């Protein structure tokens, strides 16, 4: 068992910055878990606190059955891969991989055998006698992973594992990493600021802001049902459309048209209430002809993104007069021209409403603490 | 039209060749000047190469009347060789202390946030030039006297170490700063103790810096005259720099045969050390690791 349990975890830096704010989190045994958030949200601090490189100001950290809050990093049975990989430049690949075993006083022959075996698993056998400076970025990352694997830790901690690779290598490394984690079955926590990386890799994602967790869920959950407007804006390669709306009888008045209230919010809204209507560009269907229950506006920008285009429409201004833009994904071959008038209809069951930034009708989802602003630092 | 063009071309060619000649002369002039300057500075070195092997060396440089008698005469001098050994002791001891303490201090200053750290470093650097300088010789002598460190090699080593440490810390801190903390943190997560981190990671990574500071300390002590001259009483403990002074005054005037021979022996170890360390580690006065 190597689940990670965090209770009321708080980290306040000496300069008064509250990087972690009474944070509760449970990471299951064998899970591939992502800590996601913008820079300065405390995700790296959280990872370093789990590793023991930062001392918690309050709260507890448990790994498996052990309380490790006050243990030094070396006694926590974790391995960490740093953003710059932190390979020792004066040691060969073999010595680098064998280093954790050297600290554990394993005999030289035994640890070199172990290093060779681990390197073999990751396809590094040909590189054993090289220095880190002679390796490519992808190879360096594999060596860092091999070094972490060599000591069979209970938990892997990866700090921005893909950010130092170029774009093409990143995709390759992403697949490799996911496969490796599945094969090893070791609880793995990684930090990233790239929502696409988190969605692609993780079994579950914690989205952080200002030292707090704003939502925890599977990639599907955080993508389809963001618990608040922060997560809605952060997750997805194109942010969710968030349009001011007002409850009008049994419908929503959104940008001059009446749309049905989303199913899950029915009965939870009161007439005349001001809300925010949210729908992802991917869940909108563009039509050049008038359709019912659709927003309408003029096409202003068409961005070609390969197999699809991102189309921005200026819809009718809201009641307070602010102009609103809505983005919609249009498959290739059906792109409108700027200046065209178009209709965009939300797909059933894919639109959400937010009250004061929180999802309405999310009774099933765990309550999320109110956001605190002006705190947080990414160490 | 064509005539005009030809004329212009003619003068153009003449102009160009004249310019080329002027350029060539300027080059020759510049190199002759450089050679003269170089010769001016090289002559003393040439003297060092020829005079020790000359039967009757003068203050000028000439083709030597080859002999090795000067070396035999030097060996007969009771203090000449011991003084070189003394120099090695003083320089080695000081270099060892400077490198050890400077490495520890630089590491701490680089990794721990101390308020006013930079002011402290610059202050130390400023004071260091005073510590071994002439200005503080009286209080230093007084201090050494009270601590019973007069006529003691340890006293000389400690005072020279104190003088060299600030600059050594300053140089080494740059090397330490350039070593990513992730190296150490990585080792810490694997369970390495601070001493293991220092031994396995930090020292090997900053080795060029340690070598530079070590060589620099040796060269400094090797050439220091004032501190050992004042603190050491007898010629039996005196280093080469001090013995050189006694060769100069014996018999009322400079003994050029001994002096030139001794100068050669005196400069060889440091020159050899420079070559060795430079080929092994390369000299760098800044941090930064190629990765």
UniProtKB/TrEMBL annotation, chain A:
Residues 4-235 form the ABC transporter domain. It comes from the Bacteria. Keywords: ATP-binding, Cell membrane, Membrane, Nucleotide-binding, Translocase, Transport. Gene3D superfamilies: 2.40.50.100, Nucleic acid-binding proteins (2.40.50.140), P-loop containing nucleotide triphosphate hydrolases (3.40.50.300). One of its GO terms (cellular component) is ATP-binding cassette (ABC) transporter complex, substrate-binding subunit-containing. The keyword Cytoplasm does not apply. One of its GO terms (molecular function) is ABC-type transporter activity. InterPro entries: AAA+_ATPase (IPR003593), ABC_transporter-like_ATP-bd (IPR003439), ABC_transporter-like_CS (IPR017871), ABC_transpr_MalK/UgpC-like (IPR047641), Mo/tungstate-bd_C_term_dom (IPR008995), NA-bd_OB-fold (IPR012340), OB_MalK-like (IPR040582), P-loop_NTPase (IPR027417). This is ABC transporter. It comes from Micromonospora sicca.
Automatic annotation (TrEMBL), chain B:
It is found in: Cell membrane. The chain crosses the membrane at residues 31-49, 88-109, 121-141, 153-172, 209-231, 264-283. Pfam families: BPD_transp_1. Residues 84-277 form the ABC transmembrane type-1 domain. It is a multi-pass membrane protein. Keywords: Cell membrane, Membrane, Transmembrane, Transmembrane helix, Transport. InterPro entries: BP-dep_ABC_trans_perm, MetI-like, MetI-like_sf. PANTHER family: INNER MEMBRANE ABC TRANSPORTER PERMEASE PROTEIN YCJP (PTHR32243:SF18), MALTOSE TRANSPORT SYSTEM PERMEASE-RELATED (PTHR32243). Belongs to the binding-protein-dependent transport system permease family. This is Carbohydrate ABC transporter permease.
